[in-house]
Amino acid sequence: MAVRATVSRFPIDAGAHESSGIPWGVSVTPFATKDENGHSPVYGSDGELLPRCENCWAYFNTYCELDQWSWNCALCGNPQGLSSQAIARYSHPQSCPEMMSSFVDLELPVEESDEAMQPRPVYVAAIDLSSSEEFLELTKSALLASLEALAPGSLFGLATFSHKLGLYDVQGPIPVVKNVFIPPDTEGTLPIELEDVMPLSQFLAPVETCKDRIGSALETLRPTTSWERTTAAGQGLEGVLMGGRGFGVAMEAILNYLGSEYGSTFALGRVFAFLSGPPDYGAGQLDTRRYGEQYASKREDADRALLPEQTPFYRDLAAVAVQAGVCVDIFAVTNEYTDLASLKFLSVESGGSLYLYSNADDSTLPQDMYRMLSRPYAFGCVLRLRTSSEFKTGHSYGHFFPDPQYENVQHIICCDSYATYAYDFEFEDTKGFARHGSEPPIIQIAFQYTVVLPPEELSDSGLVSSSRGKHSLKRRLRIRTLQCGVAQNINELYDSVDPEVVLSLLVHKVILASLEQGVREGRMLLHDWLVILTAQYNEAYKLVQLKNGSSVIGQVDVAFSQCPELQSLPRLVFALLRNPLLRFHEEGVHPDFRIYLQCLFSALEPSSLHRAVYPVLTSYSTPDKQAYPRHSLSRAALITSGSPIFFLDAFTTLIVFYSSTADPTLPFPPPHDCLLRTVINKLKQERCVTPKLIFIRGGKDDATAFENYLIEEQDVDGSGLTSVMGFVSFLEDVTQGALEYMKSGI
User: Fold this and answer.
1) Which CATH number does the domain housing residue 685 bear?
2) Against a cut of 0.85, is the pTM above it?
3) % residues pLDDT > 90 (the chain)
4) Cα–Cα distances in Å, from 134 out to 84, 241, 356, 570, 628?
């Protein structure tokens, strides 16, 4: 569990927080195997015996005061007695994980209902047949790759959808498909239960014995013809022929189908939904005409108009998925408007992921699926962050759904080691940590989760044990307790800033502002934040003074030269304003791509997000020798460095660029055994998504893909190259804004 704070020394009170201009909060990656310093938790058992505070329900930890008979809660200070069992337990502290470390992972007893469960992982692929041959070939490749990643004992089901829903039985010698026609009306449901079409035990096939038959079934898939679709759909709205992609009805039926066996056949189900376009048939169909109509209207903010969902159908369907114990991953392979703003809730709120690929030709879908299924994940997770009594959590951000009953409790259906969540803090009162005798602030994060352990084999005899095919469930409780420092003045606060976590909280806030008030409002919020931070920093360090309220003594330090920890923030804000997340549609930003970025960025841990927003540009003198570890993203940096090879890491894209003046004897592309390739392979291995790798020779190949990342000479509003360099012009604008803010005396 990695936890990183925006400031390692917390503001002393609400006034100090307000005057600093720095967001106050943390990012949490609960299922990360190690903490942010590379330390593993201390593992143990008997998590149910861990004492809890009777007042705030925090767990006992190393920061609690302990005597022979009682203990004081480190979070609220409440004293309470110890049970005789705990007294005996804590008489041998070296055997108690919670006495040895503030980072523990304890096993919990499996409930009786879980013991009766067959904890076999269940995977269902739902494939769009209202598509093309290229789409189906890509989907087949992805599923064949995913089958290799599934553990023995897993169950796999194959379904297709168009104007009908198809269920495949692959357990016999020849794959058999049974189809049910989907009603075309927007309120319709299937006329028959799927269990009556095909028993679930017949639909879900064991992967280890049916892998070849699943492959054979995939080979039989063909796109539905336009004749089939139009005949089934008939005349649509206003005489326009509708398509035949009944995604909504198909997903609802599949989730109900699986949900009937949740807790008996399986503990966790995952549905992979492959989409080639918008749902346009039956219940859950989306009206994509709003894409053109909204942009035709000059009076409406088009970037705002397409961010909200047009129907709650898929948000409601996510609730069905959660009840069924199923997480849904959506893989959209399309360049047409699909309205991911409406569809995203089905994946995000069920604990799944949303992937978008603009075409099938250079898609990384097979690699992404294999990578996703190869890494460990937890399910049935509950996340709770508690704080000491002087402060509390404000907003919480991430892909979870809040508990309907308990405040600050988040449920996560499926969580991997990359999934990250964020919280911001606020004070309970004006005194904060300044009151006499106040203890250092404490944060405690509790993460309860379940893992499925695959069947083990008897290595000594070489024979498979009798438990072959039987997975086991383990319920665990991971607790991390942190004691934080307090900054006694503004200098200490600024010196403790972690700019990557500040960026993470800013991204969450501007995404929220964009969804509620539009992209323009999100941009203004971000720009104003930097202006105010610059003004407050200059006032704190007394770099600028106002005489008679108007004349200025001194020069505004927009580069934060007195504080190294703040120096990267102007570039990060500039880069975020240039990112497709916040750029306007007029610059060619597709609304679905913006939604995809919102979903991706809001789940990334801070270091990955930093690369996604402001890519890392390094240079090499040869493929085996690095020249400089970091350059600014500008053409000037390329020219002045004099290096022949540049490597750009933009998180989802990796680019190797050979300058036009590079020695022609340098091998292109870089050899597989060189240092640069080693760096590339390591980065690809560590990513939660498969980055696209591009090689470009300057002067010979089209370098647009690389040059687009050289943002510092681009105008911040995207109106093209300006007479004054973009980043420099941006800093001048921030300087002017900071001066006006100080003069206004706000």
Assistant:
1) 3.40.20.10
2) yes
3) 54
4) 67, 24, 16, 44, 42
